[in-house]
């Protein structure tokens, strides 16, 4: 059984593909060969990079062709660099422009799919107090949340968690990923009291956790922007390299 899906990621990651391959075992009895299903699937995950993951120019922040240095004299890593670090931490091997991971899944884990839903977002957002009324529009693997002064899209990141992009502010179309917004403000979601995952495998409970953690992050850092009272974030994000 084969399954193939593509997911759009950041500007540096072109696509993500997942192939599930049913494992079979050949058992020899006497002079006869028998083919048995093992009850396991191999999950082959591949990520294709747009930029060279070994390019120093892409791994560290530059302004006017000069690397930005922190107070300790170290070059500041880019979001792309952090993405590569996260992939390596999660068991991916990088060869050229491809990051690849091979893992074994039993059938119970394999059957989990389509974990993200707009109804999840609606349910979890009701647990929080928001500065303005909003409406949510369903769009398959994402939910568009529209406030009077700000719109964001929260979506399935293809890794059993979520991603978020601010897509408009005071009527102006834009595209600011939440990771960029955090980076330019030197903010860390890990500094907040976030909920921990229950498993390394994608599952419904952890998808809900990821949505809730995203809402906690928005509440802690971005309510002024959602309310239309943080014009500076636009300029800071536009200057991000």
Task: Characterize the biggest β-sheet.
Answer: 5 strands, antiparallel
Overall number of structural domains: 2
**Rg from alpha-carbon coordinates:** 21 Å
Secondary-structure element string: EEEHEEHEEHHEEEEEHHHH
In round numbers, the mean pLDDT is 77
**Helical residue percent band:** 25-40%
Secondary structure tally: strands: 12
Question: Could you characterize the architecture of this molecule?
Answer:
By secondary structure, the chain is α+β, with helices and mostly antiparallel strands. The protein folds into 2 domains: about 5-110, no CATH class; about 120-240, no CATH class. It is about 25% helix and about 35% strand. It contains 8 helices and 12 strands. The strands form 3 sheets. It has a 5-stranded antiparallel sheet with strand order 1-2-3-7-6. A 5-stranded antiparallel sheet has the order 8-9-10-11-12. Helix 4 packs across helix 6. The longest helix has 18 residues, at about 205-220. The protein starts with a strand and ends with a helix. The model is unreliable at about 1-10, about 25-40 and about 105-110 (pLDDT under 50).
Structure, briefly:
This protein has 241 residues and is an alpha+beta fold. The chain has 8 helices and 12 strands.
């Amino acid at each position: 059984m084969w399954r193939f899906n593509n997911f759009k990621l950041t500007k540096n990651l072109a696509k993500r593909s997942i192939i599930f391959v049913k494992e079979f075992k050949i058992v020899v009895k006497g002079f006869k060969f028998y083919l048995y299903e093992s009850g396991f699937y191999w999950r082959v995950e591949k990520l294709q990079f747009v930029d060279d993951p070994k390019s120093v120019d892409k791994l560290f922040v530059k302004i006017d062709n000069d690397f930005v240095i922190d107070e300790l004299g170290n070059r500041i890593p880019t979001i792309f660099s952090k993405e590569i670090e996260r992939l390596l931490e999660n068991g991916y091997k990088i060869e050229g422009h491809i990051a690849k991971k091979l893992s074994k899944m039993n059938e119970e884990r394999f059957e989990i799919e389509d974990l993200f839903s707009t109804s999840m977002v609606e349910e979890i957002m009701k647990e929080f107090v928001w500065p303005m009324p909003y409406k949510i529009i369903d769009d398959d693997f994402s939910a568009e949340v529209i406030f009077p002064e700000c719109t964001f899209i929260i979506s399935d990141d293809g890794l059993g968690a979520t991603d978020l992009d601010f897509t408009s502010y005071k009527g102006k179309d834009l595209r600011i990923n939440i990771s960029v917004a955090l980076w330019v403000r030197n903010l860390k979601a890990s500094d907040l009291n976030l909920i921990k995952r229950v498993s390394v495998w994608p599952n419904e409970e952890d998808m809900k956790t990821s949505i809730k953690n995203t809402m906690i992050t928005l509440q802690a850092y971005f309510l002024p922007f959602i309310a239309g009272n943080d014009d500076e974030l636009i300029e800071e994000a536009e200057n991000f390299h």
